[in-house]
Amino acid sequence: MNTIDWKNLPFGYFKTDYNVRCYYKDGKWSDLDVTDNEYIQMHMAATCLHYGQEAFEGLKAFTGKDGSIRIFRLEENAKRLINSSIGLLMPQVPVELFKKAVLKAVELNKRFVPPYGEGASLYVRPLLIGTGAEVGVKPAKEYTFIVFVGPVGPYFKEGFKPVRMQIVRDFDRAAPLGTGYIKVGGNYAASLRAGERAHQEGFAAAIFLDAREKKYIDEAGPANFFGIKNNTYITPDSHSILPSITNMSLRALAEEIGMKVEQRHVPVEELSEFEETGACGTAAVISPISQIVDRDNGKVYNYCKDGKPGPMSVKLYNKLKAIQEGSEPDKFGWITIIK
Ligand code: PLP
Ligand code: COI
User: Which of 291, 217, 222 is nearest to 56 (CA)?
Assistant: First the structure.
């Protein structure tokens, strides 16, 4: 194998040795199948291709300080995939099957888990798709569940450095009663134009507002938004954002370090009151935000005046990384260790 330049890995697809698959047919899941094939052969009328019956997950495995492989919040991701499958009328992947498939995919590709201290991780991407053929708009009768993995570096190329974000008002990512609360492909399709335009205009991501009133912060591209003021961690409460497992973890850590936590509507005007803002997610970890520009009215909100992440963001980031990499005890029980 060519040596991998762990320090310079992008966040992208990386071919590894194996992926793990499982098939749903006649009302039951098959045993796990292991393959080195990167392709899926499927019917051209598969519902995932036509009607978006597709959900995915994203989680990470790390090499701990002690050399063990550590998977972060495996069970929470399993539960969220179940919520996504309920939302799109797909069969549920039982938590135990999800865990078994992820553990197997990571174990079989152990040599791709970045070593401790390289600033990289193994990204795990479970995927559930309707593979049965239908032409009328209805759920498929057959499904495929796949877990593939690949080593990744930071999602925003800046890593843990402040990025600029752009508020968009001419696109919505998700409708108030739509599918924004689950991790399904359609939400990402709806976000592509705003996201690409934000990149072209010099921003790391588009920030979407609530679709009904355009008053509140909703989602920060592929991540949740948070703001910090008066020793309080504040993050949107919205039915159209993904319940981020990273955000859930940061709320627990914020409380642990003595901050108050508020999950509520975050009005756009409040951006001028925050001392720090950031985006959080598995891929993004914490991405501190240096500047938010409201594209339609030109309003500008600045943070990180010295160009560095704010002190509370640094504290939360370090705590999260320490638990993920095992340099702090896992007192919340978030880690699954592969022996
Ligand atoms: N919001 C969106 C739209 C996402 O794609 C993600 C990534 O998974 C998140 C938020 C963060 O969620 P998590 O922390 O569970 O990765
Ligand atoms: C993640 O953070 O896991 C994501 O899925 C974000 C993006 C790559 C879709």
Answer: 222
